[in-house]
TrEMBL record:
UniProt membrane topology term: Multi-pass membrane protein
PANTHER family: ATP-BINDING CASSETTE SUB-FAMILY B (PTHR24221), ATP-BINDING CASSETTE SUB-FAMILY B MEMBER 6 (PTHR24221:SF654)
UniProt protein name: ABC transporter ATP-binding protein
Signal peptide: none
Domain ABC transmembrane type-1: 31-323
Main location: membrane
SMART domains: AAA
Cross-referenced InterPro entries: AAA+_ATPase (IPR003593), ABC1_TM_dom (IPR011527), ABC1_TM_sf (IPR036640), ABC_transporter-like_ATP-bd (IPR003439), ABC_transporter-like_CS (IPR017871), P-loop_NTPase (IPR027417), Type_1_exporter (IPR039421)
Lineage: Bacteria, Pseudomonadati, Pseudomonadota, Gammaproteobacteria, Moraxellales
Keyword list, A-Z: ATP-binding, Membrane, Nucleotide-binding, Transmembrane, Transmembrane helix
Amino acid sequence: MLNNHLEVLKIYHSVWNVVKTRYEHPIRDMLILGFILFIHTLLSVAVPYILKEIVDQSKSGTTQLEITQLFTWMNLYILATAYALGWLLMNLLNHVQGFLSANLQTKFKIALLHGSVQQFFKTTFAEQKKIEVGVYQTDILRGATSFGTITYVILFVLIPIIFQILSMVWVLAQSIALNYALYFMIFAFVTFVLNIYFTAKGNDIFTAMYDAQNQVGQFFVEKIQANYDIKVNGAQQYEMNLYEKRLNHYKNEMVNSYRKLAWIMAIQVFFVGAFLLTFMLFTVYLFKHQNVTSGDFVLISTYIIALTMPLLMVSQSIIHLKGDFIAIEKFYQYFNLETDQLKLENIIDQPVFYTFKNAQLYLGKNLIQNFNLEIEKNKIYVAIGQTGIGKTSLINYLIGLERIEAGQLFYKNIEISQQFSENIFKEIAVVSQMPMVYSGTLRENLIHNSPYHYKDDELKEYLSKFNLINLLEKNNLSLDDDLQHIYKSFSGGEKQRISIIRALLKKPKLLIMDEPTAALDEQTSLEVIQFIRNQVSTIFMISHANYAIKYADKVINFDELIQQDQRSEDDF
């Protein structure tokens, strides 16, 4: 049990460190909120005491009209004014507290969302491929929210209530009797502890609920992304039947979970109600026997009623805390995945970009022994071969997504066999097999991560060269207008050309392209390749197009390469 609690604290501390990377002054904001809560708690104790004094003074039948006593504390006018001002300030602080707590939790959430995406980008390509997008999105959003909830409940709900109870005990000890105050404290804390105990002992009702929710999210994202394939195959009803099964499973898990939650809440309400009943009856008994004044009766009643709502709120908060801790555990599991460890070595210019020396690597499912290849400056390389044979795998080694099994791989002077260098990205650009256009403006899509500044005329010239200027004209857009939903309707060819422009604007020394003209007709492809040749002197390209081979200084035939490797193994 202790180990579990220590592990939870360790995870919380780790997530807190993620928060601090993006949230500049969390401690300062928490202290401000804590101070507001401290004043609010003092007022919640003081205002009922002022009401008690008003009742007792009004019952005494005395009037204080003398000038000398006009401003004394026991003047009813002073008491009434203090009560009204205290009530006003307490409620104003309540709204300020609500704003500050929402602000604090929002900043926590934003910091964690930023940190989680940044961590995802650092995660190795192999680990990224295992992550389900729908599950990941749900886990991250839920975990980012839960961290703020945990922090708020523990620091700004549980601790203030304990302080509030102790303050009430002190006032009761001064106003009535120490014994009565101690009884009040014991009953209040017993109620408080029992609530926590029964919640902590309760079964984990959140994991199954979260898993069912993740399944629904995973299915939703997967099927929405595959909408074209589902539609053209007339599989809508089939997929909806599957979706209905997942929704029913989710519904059943939610109903069972909330049934258990309702039962736990009923137990906790019972304890709070027992506390309320016990002390109200006890106070009536003392009042009937004239052991307490009318003011004391009002004070005690107000305190008891004032505690019932916070105790119920604590009950609800503690119940959900278990689910929140599970949520941050699921959130933090993505921070335990293997990450890319990038070098920052200086690159020394050399006549060869990449060098494979007796490398052992996988091309598709084929393990290649003693692979040797040099990608030299000012040359065009075209890799050909049947689909699925491993051409894209070779690109993945070049850009650091995968590591060779043995041997050596160099980028100029830097060995990148097992650790890639971040500085390489300053010299290369990549056009992937699946070109992307993102939400935002067309300028943002074109510039992307280019370190260079481009004027509007220069960008439009590139668009004209690639027959894309009509994207602006037909939609009546400028370079800085949001593409909104328009980008989703871009054709594969338009996306591919935008992706190529994006790479060229980076002014790379080496351009790596995976099927860059697959979505283009032959005439457009020839124009695009010729333009690329004029912009970049060294190109490594995968292509099935015969016309691309005409531009090659060297053709890498993967079919022959793998056959040769297999013959070598047979000879061995």
